[in-house]
Amino acid sequence: MTVQQVVDAALRKARILGENQSATGDRLTDTVAELEDLLASWEQYGLQGWVLGSQAVTLVNATASYTFGTSGTGATFRPEAITDVYLIETDTMPLVELDRKTYFGIPDRTTAGAPTNYFYDPQLVGVLYLWPVLADVTGYTLSAHYRKRLASSLLSTDTLSIPPQWMRALKLQLALSRSVLYDKPAEGLGMQAKEAFDLCYGTNNKIPQQPLVGWPDEW
Known about the structure:
Helix content is about 30%, strand content about 20%. With about 220 residues, it is α+β, with helices and mostly antiparallel strands. The chain has a 5-stranded antiparallel beta sheet with strand order 4-3-8-1-9, with no helix packed on it. A 4-stranded mixed beta sheet has the order 2-7-6-5, with no helix packed on it.
């Protein structure tokens, strides 16, 4: 589910939104911020999944690299990984990923031309390198598909990649926190949220305090 869908489901369960309504404006922004805080609190229990999304990167003439992080030129958030990159002109062209050794082993990393390769370096500020380098970006767009921590700068269009039982617990806990904020108590919601979280944590408490790693199908 996307972040928007999770927010809408939680607010409907809390009786803040009607059946066909969707959160917008400050209500959406505030609820997404609450969702980030909730997910951050889960990490102490070893509950760690991923967010999947895509980011349009504004290309600049003769620029070989774009940063991801605070004041980044590619995005103002930092993904743990960039999994796919597409160069779009008339057609959509997937770029081939390079590892660090291969990219930095290229004799001339400023070679001009349409990019065919990329390398992402997930440092404190992530850096996306393209090669070759476009001298004239007119007519081109770039789309970077990423993976990042659940509690990291959520966008409403992001997709949460977590097990189904976690999703239920997440929506119930978010609904509970919003119902308290808006003074709209829903009977039994607190007990449902606790039971859902206990079940969620129970599937992962054999090694307490250890974050899950890898993709969901590896858990």
